[in-house]
Amino acid sequence: MDRKGEMDDRVLKGCFDNGLMGIEVPEKYGGSGSKFFDAVLVIEEISKVDASVAALVDVHNTLFVPLIIELGTEEQKQKYLPRSVTEAVGSFALSLKSVQVQMQHSEAFLVFANADPSQGYKGITAFMVDKDSKGFSIGKP
């Protein structure tokens, strides 16, 4: 996978099939309802074998999912959380001007961007972008 710069689909499927992608997702959305500490333990163990897989599981479980749980509307929770447990990888992006995305497996992205640079860091806002949104493209690896 490292030589090709690609995630093997079987590995990704294994992460979903073994419940590694919905650690903190509440049970009512199909997750295990576990805690952040449990996610850290899972990520630490995966890191012993493959840092790239661990990074994917980490970003999904500790950046993407928790922000939807804490700040998402009920409509967003119903749309993104069940799929984030079973099939859809989420990503996180931070940009001051533009975003070049290279996560070809991700279905949705939490984008943090400075919508008003005159405000400094207080101009940063967050929004959801589905991978099939008009004007959005996934960059080359």
The whole-number mean of residue pLDDT values reads 88
How many helices does DSSP assign? 4
Task: Please summarize the sheet with the most strands.
Answer: 3 strands, mixed
Helix residue percentage: 25-40%
Alpha-carbon distance between the two ends: 13 Å
CATH class: Mainly Alpha
Beta fraction: 15-25%
Shape from CA axes?
Answer: globular
SSE ordering: HHHHEEE
Rg, Å, rounded:
15 Å
Give the low-pLDDT segments: none
* Strands in their spatial order, largest beta sheet: 1-2-3
Can you give a write-up of this model?
This protein has a three-stranded mixed beta sheet with strand order 1-2-3. By secondary structure, the protein is an alpha+beta fold. The chain is 39% helix and 16% strand. It has one domain: Acyl-CoA dehydrogenase/oxidase, N-terminal domain (Butyryl-Coa Dehydrogenase, subunit A, domain 1), CATH 1.10.540. The protein has helices at residues 9-17, 36-47, 51-71, 74-86; strands at residues 89-95, 106-114, 124-130. The protein is built from four helices and three strands; from the N terminus they run ααααβββ. Belongs to the acyl-CoA dehydrogenase family. Pfam families: Acyl-CoA_dh_N (PF02771).
